[in-house]
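The material for today's practical consists of a large collection of protein records. A record pairs a protein's sequence with a compact description of its fold. Instead of coordinates, the fold is spelled out as a row of discrete tokens. We will come back to this pairing of sequence and fold again and again. Here is such a record, shown just as it appears in the course material.
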Amino acid sequence: MLDLTRIAEAAQYEGGVSRRLFLATTAALAALPSLALQAQTPTRKVAFASNPFTLGVASGDPDDASVVLWTKLAPVPDDPDGGMKPEQYEVGWEIAEDEGMKKLVGQGKALAIPQLGHTVHVEAGGLKPDRWYFYRFHVGDAVSPVGRTRTLPPPDSRPDKLRFAFASCQHYEQGLYTAYSQMARDDVDLVFHLGDYIYEGPPREGLVRKHAGPARTRCRTLADYRLRHMQYRLDPLLHGMHAVCPWFVTWDDHEFENNYANDIQEEQRPGVEPEHPVDFLIRRASAYQVYYEMMPLRPRSLPHGPDMQLYRKASFGRLAEFFVLDTRQYRTDQPNGDGVKPLNEAALNPNNTLLGRKQKGWLQAGLITSTATWNVLAQQVMMAMVQFDTALRKGYAMDQWPGYAHERMALVQFLADRKVPNPVVLTGDIHCNWVNNLRVDDRVHDAPVVATEFVGTSISSGGNGSKELPEGAQKTLSANPCVQFFNRERGYVRCTVTPTLWTSDFVVVEDVTQPGGKITTRASFVVEAGKPGAKPA
């Protein structure tokens, strides 16, 4: 058991909390998941009084020969332990060419262990490239639903088309996941989820649904985060969409804490006692572990204490290279105390970073060596340097790329100087749809366009939006020629990519507070290969 008093005293003695101190003092916490993977296979037979696969199945992080298959044993999903005893369970898995599971191409056994919340992450290998497969799990007499997944084309191939969707921000209390019902019908190859998969806040009354967990505080413990994730994954439309195709996931802030920056807490509200820095990192370790447990991630992403490797890339042949980024774990503190503020010396400070040194170097190396037609950054916060000018706020969003304007402009300059083919940025976070044509400095309106940014609205966060522009929005749009489209409805973005054309459809749900909300395509934009910038379809 961790001696938090001793950790806190050591931190105060050092005058703060260093990563080295934290990891050294909490070595048992950092090593626990790794040690768990060495557990011995049980031999006894098991039986469940109720379905242990209540959370469904999922797949993710495919390459051209393998894919991650995921499930979790949780016969009682409103219990932090899922109704499971603190024991190991042997789970069988199968992957086949047909939905009837007759033409098996792989099978095996994996352990569901209590240290990792009885989740299973199987790297199913030896698969053929660019193929659809079906998979399922079984434990005792229980059999999971059948999921569908696929491998990617060979890295040196030239696919004719890719169809995928991206989404973010699915606040359980504020709306239903109606958008996923249409996404499931879209027959996409892949889904990219760009963050805010859960929200960590306390339950509130009077909303569409109510969070489980602590009554008056946000998630704080491993049990809190597990319970919250299970509640979200219980939604049939969400876990149903996970079973349709593989997902690439990355987090933003609410998987842990709103607007945190690396090991720095959100700006404290008046009268609210700040959390001790050590407690903050211990809570981050819990949040990161549960995120790994609940997502179809490869074991290389297994967290070590408060650190977790999440940025990675994937090649859809030579059609598209995807760089999945982490703009939350390595960033410096938001300048100017966060919020919407002027683009002043603090915001332009070259020491500000969203990516961190190591991730930035990895990204630049990948962009230089990419042979893909389209080079895609799948990330969290808006890159366009939009100046807001309304009665309520005036300036630039410090939690987004403008708060890190020097690094942002250097990255776009890098894309231009290295002539990276057809850069496209996919973004979530802001609960609105945007289409932005990116320049090195968006304040210079006649500078050449370098890249295109598609920003997807929320699945449900913020409740119902509106297709009407809010008061003052037209003034903001007129002052920012980089913006080609703006919309506040809920939904996701569906993308169709060919060697010559990128098409983004903005799919919206008119009402997320009632079942059966009408779903329409509000707008479509295209980018022609070799011609940066989006135009209406």
